Amino acid sequence: MRYILSIDQGTSSSRAIVFDEEGRAVKCAQKEFTQHFPQSGWVEHNPDDIWESVRDVVLEASEGYEISAIGITNQRETTIVWDAVTGEPVHNAIVWQDRRTAPFCKQLREQGLEETIRRKTGLVIDPYFSGTKIKWILDNVPGARDRALRGELRFGTVDSYLVWKLSGGKVHVTDPSNASRTMLLNINTLEWDKELLALMDIPLSMMPAVASSSEVFALCDMDGLRGVPVTGIAGDQQAALFGQMCIKPGAVKNTYGTGCFLLMNLGDKPVLSENRLLTTVAWKIGSKVNYALEGSIFVAGSVVQWLRDGLGIIKSSSEIEALARSVEDNGGVYFVPALTGLGAPYWNSEARGTISGLSRGITAGHIARAALESIAFQTMDIVEAMQKDSGILVSEMKVDGGASRNNLLMQFQADLLGCEVIRPTITETTALGAAYLAGLGAGIWASPEALAGRWKAEKTFSRTCNCPDINSCRQAWHKAVERCLL
Q: In a 10 Å sphere around its CB, with 0-12 CB exposed, 13-18 middle and 19+ buried, how is residue 263 labelled?
């Protein structure tokens, strides 16, 4: 039996999971690390904390197993700049959630560059992405720009930084799924765009080589794993798409976590969205590139955390389903959880949350139900936009993430979309996707198609309620969103 070590580096913790060649998780280790909030809207990590947490879980999980390959999946867009010789970061990692570059993004929009950037990168102009974060570091860390111009600094998203550390500072590389989240990669050529680099005053020498998502990137230079090849890399949401075996055009997955990330496989041709979705590289295997449409929801599972911590109507997140089931319906209450603005397809950072339809008869159960339903309604908006952009009718959606265990939410999602919502037996789809890519890169499996039969459904939710009720719910939701955007 051969074993693959999957590194799943997230926003609040790092995990390492060992999978066998049947795709079964046999051992897992996890370690949290600190997030830093220097100012309102700023979110940072200490890169050393990231590396130390990864190193610790890798050694713990791999102990007792002969590892054949290593896969990496990671929080995307998070930006690290380090010294090319010493490997010392010049600043804390600026996290994907960070909004400090909003003024510069506004300048870019005012210069009329939105269409140019969308056409080249498939992205909207937003502080979410890495490019403006790199510029901020070069502009604000003393001496950084001069050092960058002398070729002394390197940039990487978290995957690139981890490969650098794992290889002992020998390899500076990334994959197209992560590179396509920087707002600097031309997704048509898979090369760093010189015009965009010049626009943000970023030297090309800082940028990692863009390889594929499944090949031998580097050999590990770490005690206990020395000589083991790193053979798979993908950003977390693309890895989940692959782990869900959404390998054919039109296949859709939604990850229900703190936020929601909905991706549709587009096949080998990028489709630029006319409905404010993102076009991104899903993965590259050999010479074949797969693209995806993506919609990001900022507040999903975190709305349940807010009901717990902000309102105090539940003591733990696990209580939400029972409370929501205590009422037959939402009682006319609609909750638009724009607690940090609205993501796709609205992209309105100024929007603020609203709860409408309140009366004397409304209870905590109605608010809990409306909060859960808000997750499904936001997903519905993205699915409708995807269908318009792609011309593909969504007949089924594979789901994963913590909130996918909520049967009430999943049933309502199926009712809203009028399609099957399918939860797999293996819900560690992000880590599994990285393991699959690593196994392909190491020759453990022959092709993505050879892996497709391993995916199994645990539960399928199908539409149960009648159309008039659902149509009135949709209309009421959209009216609530309109109020939120005023």
A: buried
Count CA atoms within 13 Å of residue 13 on its CB side. Answer: 8
Structure tokens at 381: 């908006």
Residue 406: name the closest of 371, 380, 363 by CA. Answer: 371
Q: Are 237 and 77 in contact (CB under 8 A)?
A: no
Whole-number Cα distances in Å, 453 to 145, 150, 244, 430, 459: 50, 51, 11, 18, 17
Residue 356 pairs with which residues in a beta bridge? Answer: 334
DSSP H or E segment with residue 367: helix 364-390
User: What's the Rg (C-alpha) of the chain?
Assistant: 22
Whether pTM exceeds 0.85: yes
The 10s digit of each residue's pLDDT in 34-67 is 888 898 878 899 999 999 999 999 999 999 999 9
What is the token pair recorded at 76? 């995307």
407-417 and 467-485 are packed helices; what angle lies between their axes, rounded to 10 degrees?
A: 100
- DSSP H helices in 63-188: 102-110, 114-121, 130-140, 144-149, 158-166, 176-179
The residues with which 264 forms a beta bridge, in sequence order, are 252, 293
pLDDT tens digits, one per residue of 265-299: 999 999 899 888 999 999 999 999 999 999 988 88
Helical residues (DSSP H) of 151-291, grouped into ranges:
158-166, 176-179, 194-199, 236-243
CB 324 within 8 A of CB 335: no
Pairing between strand 396-400 and 252-256? parallel
Coil, strand or helix: which one is 430? helix
Instruction: Assess contact for 355 and 484: CB atoms under 8 A.
Output: no
